[in-house]
Amino acid sequence: MANTKKSTNINISENNWPSSSEEGQLTMDVYQTPTEIIVKSAIAGVSPKDLDISITNDMVTVRGKREQEEEVEEDNYFYRECFWGTFSRSVILPMEVDANEAKATFKNGVLTIKLPKVEKVRTKRLDVDED
Fold first, then answer.
1. Which residues of the chain have pLDDT under 70?
2. 40, 78, 101, 113 — which has fewest CB within 10 A?
3. What is the rounded CA–CA span in Å between residue 131 and residue 118?
4. Is the pTM of this model over 0.90?
């Protein structure tokens, strides 16, 4: 059987994200409602136009870049816990979703992606007509 995964990009920016071993990883909450899978991630300090979200039937990938506004010499840091630079995260979804109907919002530094569940009929009963 052929692979029929559909892919939809939401809010694609013009950036080409470098692949780096120092790429940060987002934290995400993934939960369900009766009709949707919800993905939430706190992404402070990033503009929505700097996010790239790719969705297939069973996976979501969020990529972006957080720019440091000022240069600080290493010797002047007491603590360095914030991540600056490119980041990404891919999550395999627990069930198939309709990538074409997905919606993404960004409010107060929190990205919310709503993915409608695909309703599948597992078994269909056919009546046999008599000719």
1. 1-21, 121-124
2. 78
3. 36
4. no
